[in-house]
């Protein structure tokens, strides 16, 4: 995907063998208060091989 510059309290990188970049993009959600995050179950990473780096 590439490098991203963010201003955040924490960044968690998710991925797996059977998860596409499009699945991750489709799982991005924005709350009314402006917080943006990834809905992990919606992305498909839950229940598959999960690689997380925090």
Question: How would you characterize the overall build of this protein?
Answer:
With 54 residues, this protein is an alpha+beta fold. Helix content is 19%, strand content 22%. The protein contains two helices and four strands; from the N terminus they run βαββαβ. It has helices at residues 21-26, 40-43; strands at residues 13-15, 28-30, 36-38, 51-53. The strands form two sheets. Strands 1-4 form a two-stranded antiparallel sheet. The chain has a two-stranded antiparallel ribbon with strand order 2-3. Strand 2 (28-30) and strand 3 form a beta hairpin. The longest helix has 6 residues, at 21-26. The radius of gyration is 11 Å and the shape is globular. The mean pLDDT is 77.
Helix content estimate: 10-25%
Number of strands: 4
Return the average pLDDT rounded to an integer.
77
Give the overall silhouette. globular
For the record, give the distance between the C-alpha atoms at the N and C termini, rounded to a whole number: 17 Å
Question: Which residue ranges are poorly predicted, with pLDDT under 50 across at least 5 consecutive positions?
Answer: none
Structural class: alpha+beta
Order of helices and strands: EHEEHE
Global Rg = 11 Å
Number of helices: 2
Approximate strand percentage: 15-25%
Q: Going across the biggest sheet, name each strand in turn.
A: 1-4
Q: Mind describing the biggest β-sheet?
A: 2 strands, antiparallel
């Amino acid at each position: 995907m590439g490098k991203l510059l963010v201003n955040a309290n924490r960044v968690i990188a998710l991925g797996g063998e059977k998860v596409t970049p499009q699945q991750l993009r489709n799982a991005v959600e924005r709350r009314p208060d402006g917080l943006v995050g990834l809905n992990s179950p919606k992305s498909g990473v839950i229940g598959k091989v999960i690689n997380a780096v925090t």
